[in-house]
Amino acid sequence: RSKAEGPGRSTLFDVSMHNRVRERIELEAALRTALARGELRVAYQPIVNLETGQPLGAEALVRWEHPERGNISPATFIPIAEDAGLIGSIGTWVRNQAMSQLARWRADGTVADDFYLSVNVSPRQLTDANLPLIVSAELLRYGVPAGALALEMTESVMVDGSSVTSQVLFELRELGLRLLVDDFGTGFSALGYLRRFPVTGVKIDRSFVSGLGESVEDEEIVRAVVAMSRALGLSIVAEGVETPTQRDALAAVGVRQGQGWLWGRAMAPDEFVASVRAVASAINRDQLAAGNS
Ligand code: C2E
Ligand code: MG
Ligand code: MG
Ligand code: MG
């Protein structure tokens, strides 16, 4: 260590480092029992028709209510779950929660037949050669059509994935699942994988959406993503839409599906149902008003 830092500084550094390691070990231990203790939940964020606000689908996002620390972000605990070998069981649990929820919403008419639920998968989950068989059994068990289930993965899955991962993706696609590239545009890879893998759509990362209406560069990037996705026959969802300005800029370049706080955050199931009903009656009201004018 340099003299300028001094002994005091390096001690501070060691202490904070020590605290971080201890915190990490504690979180990992708590996460091991979180599922069994019922501390995990699945929240649902609407994916909507950008022009009407009508829900076309939803993303299932896992939540952890730690007994002492309260809510811990998946951005914090998913990487821990991946390192600790817990992502398989957590991922399976989230997927099953989502599918059984979807089956109920389809049965009680909360959602239309073509409504889809989108579930995040970690790279590690896609190295399990049995995954397609397991998912196909789950589809049968819940009575959910494959096309109503989407899996979201980051592009690293396809760029760094093994031949097993590739096989798993082709089999999942063969079943009829939608396969979406999450956080699209944040990787720095060549785009060839979009043709080599059976991807059905992309989710444009929030970092490109946030600058819309202010940054000409971001607008050009989104425009290019739309053109390319169209040429490849891919669906497009814009993530992290927070303002009407962003929505309008997206609509102007031909993006049809949006997700973001402008329409709703990730919600508990009953809240989600209430929001679907509220949107439906608002759309009805607008149509009536338009009809009467
Ligand atoms: P993601 O898949 O890209 O999910 C979108 C994240 O952006 C979510 O954060 C969502 O709450 C947030 N978001 C949505 N709309 C807006 C908006 O308008 N503005 C802003 N600022 N943020 C918005 P969340 O729920 O904290 O999830 C973080 C990440 O954790 C997810 O990113 C996903 O990579 C991962 N994750 C969540 N649930 C699961 C899961 O069940 N399995 C796996 N493997 N990963 C998960
Ligand atoms: Mg996602
Ligand atoms: Mg995303
Ligand atoms: Mg993202």
UniProtKB/TrEMBL annotation:
Domain EAL as annotated: residue spans: 24-280
Top-level division of the source organism's lineage: Bacteria
Protein name (record): Diguanylate cyclase (GGDEF)-like protein
Species of provenance: Krasilnikovia cinnamomea
Residues of the full protein shown: 477 to 769 of 769
